[in-house]
Amino acid sequence: MFDINITLLDYSIIGIYFAFIIALGLYFKFRQQSQEDYFLAGRSLTWPIIGFSLFASNMGSISLIGLAESGYRTGFAVFSYEWMATVVLIIFAVFFLPFYLKNRIYTIPEFLERRFSGFARYYFSGVTITLNVFIDIASGLFAGALVVKMAFPELSLTAIIWGISILAAFYTLLGGLASVVYSDTVQAVLLIGSSIFVTVAAYTHIGGWEQITAQVSAEHLSIIRPATDPDLPWPGLFSGVFLLGFYFWITNQFIAQRALAAKDTRQGQWGALFAGLLKLSALFIMVLPGVMALIMFPDLDDPVNAYPTLIFNLLPAGLLGITLAGFIAALMSSVDSGLNAASTLFTFDFYKKWRPEASEEKAMKVAKIAIAVLMVVSALWAPQIVKFDSFWDYLQMVLSFICPPIVALFIFGLFSPRINTKGANAAIVTGVSLSILSVGYQIYINFTGAEDVLPHYLYLAGIIFVVCSVILVTVSYAGKPDSGKDWEQLIWTPDFFREESKKLAEHSVFYNYRYQSVVLLILIVVLLVIF
């Protein structure tokens, strides 16, 4: 399809990037004074750092490859995951983040224990670690390895995955969350800049928007699809897509850990909203390139190569090096964030529960060992992802089966003290049973080629959520409310809203994150109307 010509200048740019990231890890290693420094960056992060880090961690190589692939195959519809993420981030900033920060927790499952019980914490933490390893980290390794292999075809996919794993684990192990978030900030700037380079180059090569609309169907350029669409039916936006977004942005340690490290509540809220704004750019710098790749290279053997194909065909020396560095940056963001989150979960939700007397030094040592072990497991699993027909569908399908019971616990648990521990436990058992059956069935389908008779996975996620919610509410109301809980710290109430309103009234409109949220919602509506 094309000749790959990576010059000495390109290699030099990539080398400088690697050296910088390693130096950053060493810098933060020598600044660490406590476990709060290692796991939560001393709770000192400001909104730009939080926003860029949230964006880079999510919009890493997984999304860069996956969104472009879906843009090539199905068009703009995949952007629904992105605008819905912005809506969920608004919900996160308004309702959930203030309570996470009030409780000064290290992990999201820790909040679930305070609201319900230790069983809920262990279950959720175990599920999150598993998803971080087999979805977030492994997928990031797989996506990144695809591009690296195109540049170095003589290397095996497995060798590339192991090389990336070791590098990401090294600087994450050294500097903890501070190293991750500040490197993510650099990586976000590189990712956005390099994606703009690719988009502009492809757009110019094609000849502008008129040429795009002339060669691509109107349906391909439509975000909202009919209910009969096989890939993303519009009713699925309000079941599966919302549930996936809720799990990922509000309850997943992989993402929320950045907000937990906020200097104060306002900085965390602004950071979340800034990430939501950045997410809206994905339509133009990640999905649109996939659509343009369809015009330029309509006969690709595998749509997953859409974005790499654009990179190696369009960019001259220097710009190619910057873009490859940006792609590697995206890859590293996915992997380092997953490793850091999973090791934090293991340390606080399991090790510290088993050994509460352990010193801070011992806890940090255990976390570093966990990073090494999790890196090995992720690297072993990553090559297996190639067995799934669609890389993006692999990610969304697995999450859609597992996240609904977790989302039910958080939604009902935050707003009603009447939801009790017995109801939560019953919902967990129900959710686990349904998730195991659903995942097992899909694995059987993928490896045998049998006909899939279940509803679309986005609908199935909604069904599982409704069943778990009914069990949660029914069992809770059949018993008594939990006793001994500090409800002021755990439950959102209208009184909390009124008190916050008084504090916000003391500042200018530009300070008020609620007005910023409204602006984001307006931007979403504008994009949906145009496309």
Q: What percent of residues are in strands?
A: under 5%
**Structural class by secondary-structure content:** mainly alpha
Cα(first) to Cα(last) distance is: 32 Å
Elements, N to C (H/E): HHHHHHHHHHHHHHHHHHHHHHH
CATH topology of one domain: Sodium/glucose cotransporter
- The radius of gyration computed from the alpha-carbon positions, rounded to a whole number of angstroms, is 22 Å
The biggest sheet amounts to: none
Architecture of one domain, CATH level 2?
Answer: Up-down Bundle
Report low-confidence residues grouped into runs of 5 or more: none
Based on DSSP secondary structure assignment, what is the total number of beta strands?
Answer: 0
What percent of residues adopt helix (DSSP H or I)?
over 70%
- Judging from the principal axes of the Cα atoms, what is the shape? globular
Whole-number mean pLDDT: 84
Describe this structure in words.
- The protein is an all-alpha fold and 531 residues long.
- The chain has a domain at 8-26 and 42-383: Sodium/glucose cotransporter, CATH 1.20.1730.10.
- It is 76% helix and 0% strand.
- The protein contains 23 helices and no strands.
- The protein has helices at residues 8-31, 35-40, 47-58, 61-73, 80-102, 108-115, 118-151, 157-206, 209-215, 240-251, 253-260, 265-280, 282-296, 306-314, 319-354, 360-381, 391-402, 404-415, 421-448, 457-478, 487-490, 494-505, 513-530.
- The longest helix has 50 residues, at 157-206.
- The chain is globular, with a radius of gyration of 22 Å.
- The model has no long low-confidence stretch (mean pLDDT 84).
